Amino acid sequence: MTTASPATPDATLGASGAARAFGRSMFGKTLFDNRRVFTVWAVAAGLLTMMYAGFYPQITAGTASSVPEAIRGFGFDDMTSAAGYLQGAVFGLLVPLLATFYGAATGARMISADEESGYLDLLLSHPLGRTRLLLHRFAALAAGAVLIAVVVLGAVLAVRSSAGLQAVPVGGFTAQAVNLALLAVLFGALATGIGAATGAGRATVFGTTAGAGVLTYAVHGFAPQIGAAWLRRLTPFHYYIGGEPLKNGFRLADATVLAAATVVLIAAGAWRFNRRDLG
């Protein structure tokens, strides 16, 4: 019969060093674990942008005039100009919804999925505080959002000449891509914060966040139709595209509102996460 020998100082030092490295590399580990997820979202967004941006030469005055009045509030009020078309068909409809669902789905993975599977206990058994874990996970989500925005920017610039979109300056496209990343990060913060604060399951967090996104998107689009355009200012989509960055370029005030809301959501989630019984 053999007996377990006591741990040597070197072994103990090695174990603690590994634990410290584990804590320091949580951001990188999260990026690595989700690399395929981030890539799929980015490629899907890029292909969608390239495809719909490429349709612009086929738009005629007759096509533009046939847009139903009910959906003009979603950015379809000026379909003949390059900026107007892109603001409606690309950056006002499909791409922001995709960014919203990215934030909801990925944010639901950051804390909720780990807690639901029991993996969160293992993570927190290392010298890694709850706030640090949350921030590292969220930073990886934000990096994924930036990747999506960069790919979307590259996609629209790739077809800019062939699709006759030269009237929109590169600075306008860049400003819209920045706002797209901020929008995705905002909904990612909402999902991450809800999961951290409540301990709700992944499906519940995703459904709640996606539902909030669709609701605020609908309010932003339909508010002018019911004579309540002021409601738009209560939605993140107003600060994402209301300033028409494709035409007017980067607007610091709008970006600041999106960033500030993100900070508040993450701070609230972290505050509650640190005080919640995870048992």
UniProtKB/TrEMBL annotation:
Cross-referenced Pfam families: ABC2_membrane_2
Membrane-traversing stretches: 37-56, 85-105, 138-159, 179-200, 212-232, 252-273
Entry keyword set: Membrane, Transmembrane, Transmembrane helix
Residues of the signal peptide: none
Domain of life (superkingdom): Bacteria
KW Oxidoreductase (keyword) present: no
Name this polypeptide is given: ABC-2 type transport system permease protein
